[in-house]
Every structure is written in structure tokens, then in C-alpha cells.
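A quick aside before the break. I want you to see a complete sequence-to-structure record at least once, exactly as it would be stored in a machine-readable document. Don't worry about memorizing anything.
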Amino acid sequence: MKKFMKFILCIVPSLVLTVHEAHSNDAIKHPPLGLLPPVVIPANNPQTPAKIELGKKLFFDPRLSGNNWISCATCHNPTLGFADGLPRMLGGPASKEGGRNTPTIINCAYNELQFWDGRAATLEEQALGPIQNPNEMNETLDSIVKKLNSMPEYVGAFKEVFGTDVTANGIAKAIAAFERTIVFANSPFDRYMMGDESALSESAMRGMYLFNTKAECIKCHSGPNFTDNNFHNIGVPADGPLKEDLGRYDVTKNDADKGAFKTPTLRNITETTPYMHNGFFPTLFEVVQFYNGGGGRSENKSPDIHGLNLTAQEVNDLTEFLKALTGELVHVKYEPMSLGYPNLPDGF
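That is the input. The structure line, written in C-alpha cells, reads:
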């Protein structure tokens, strides 16, 4: 079984999921699973140790918010899988519940688009979104630039990294540089792919085979980061304050995108509960059973979502494989900072 699985994952360039597809001229093929490649760094934002350190400082600084107590790390907590452990985020001046689950930033460097609806094309663009969102950090870029330019430690750091005073562009680039370091690997799956045949249990091995065949997970969760970077409507029931969430449609205005949300990475999936764009499912078992039953009801549901007829043992095996995708934790050390405001301008 183990040699056969390596043949499927390493040698076969793509996987054909059903007998019907195998005999079809337009068979759907998918990038095989495997080890993560090096992160691609954009030419206009090269990584440097000083820039990463500045980005980390900004990431954990609550002064980036309007009320000075919400940081990026409030919702992307390293101890909670760089998410917040809540079904839906809390933010804004009144800590109001939002409509969507906080996505993890684990391996976000591999995302082709950011946010559940893909409205940000880059990590740099994404970094400034929550700061300006009145229901999240509730700050303006002009205000945060003025605020940070009043703090000598930030003025000095920006001079060193960018050769300028604090700017919104510099804030975005520094945070993005830090986020590109949050890469989780060396999971049991990775160790198996590198030759350690004892890294996966027999149950997880059977689950990996199911993942690529009968369970059809590979259709959307393909490639080294276990995502096709695409958007799908799988019929997740509405939950929380939003009676309807049109997802990707709000960005594209394409009717085919109504109710479609980005395929999340499955790496470190055990660390990022609850699941789905609105946090509807608290456990992996419930997620697998949801897919096994053919997803939910939606007029625009993807044709790839249908009943799978997995047995109880197969559901357990598939769940065991998903658990084997959790890698070593990234240990982020940072110094708690004083919340004093030296030389604070008038109006603050």
C-alpha cells in the first residue's frame, strides 16, 4: 500500500477520479499532492530580516486599530492556528460579531488571492484591509501613519528598512513580509513524502487513498498546499448575523460565483477550528460527513458536490489523513510593547 501511494502521489502527474472520467476525453485532472515549494517573494517587496522584524512588530501592535486594543494577532493568534477559534470574527468599536470565520494566515504566502471572497490580489493589499474595515480594526490609513510617525521606534525602523518615514505602503509591505514566514511543514504527510514510511498510520494511509479517489477531495484540495485557489459553492448553511452571503459574487458580479468561497488550505487543519467560511462546523468529523452527504442545499451548488457513500470506517480513515496534515508549529517570539504615545499629535 505504501509504495502504491507514493506511485500515485509522486509519479502520476495528475489523478483521474472516476471510471467515467478515466474514459472521457475531457477528464478532469488535478495537481498532485506533495511537498511545499519555496515561497515566491515578489520582486517589489524582497525579504530582509529587518523588514520581517518590523512586520512582526506591526502585526502584534494594537495601536494599528482605532481604539488601540485590536492587533492583527487578535484575530490571527499564533496559539489558535493563526486564527481566533471563533465561528465568526469579533471586531469594531463594539466587538460586534462579523459574518465570516477568520481565515488562518498559515501558508497564506501560497494563496493566489486573499480573503474568503478573493477580493485582495496580494498579501500587501490584504494587510491594509482589516485596518480600514470599520467592523474590524476601525482605523484610517492617514490616522495610523500619523500615529506611528509620532513614535521614534517606528520612525527609526522605517528609516532602516525603507529609507522613509512611516507610510501605508511600508506598513503593508512589512506585514506581508512577516506573514510570508508563517509556513507550516514537516507534518506526518511531509515526512512520509520524504521517505519515512512509518510517518503515517495504516488508517491515514487508507484515508490518503480515499482523498485521491472515492472521496474526491483532490478535486478542490489539490497541489502541495491542498487547495486549488479557486471558489466553490458547496451549500454551507447560513449561520450568524448574515442571512445571506454571496461570497465571490460580491467581487466579480458573476452569477456563477453566487455563494462561492475560496478553497482553504488543509494544512494544519486541526489547529484552525471551526470550519467553513462562517464557522458552521466545529469538528473535522462533521465536515467529512457534510461532504459524504452531498453538501448542503443551494441553487448554485457546484456540480462536483454530491453524495460519496463513504462507510463509517472510510470516514474515520479520511479524518485520520486530514489530521496527518498538521505540521510543526511556528514559534513566534515577540516583546510586549508599551502602549505609551510619546509626542502624540494634537487630536489623539
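Two observations worth writing down. The chain is about 30% helix and 0% strand. Residues 168-179 form the longest helix (12 residues). We'll return to this after the break.
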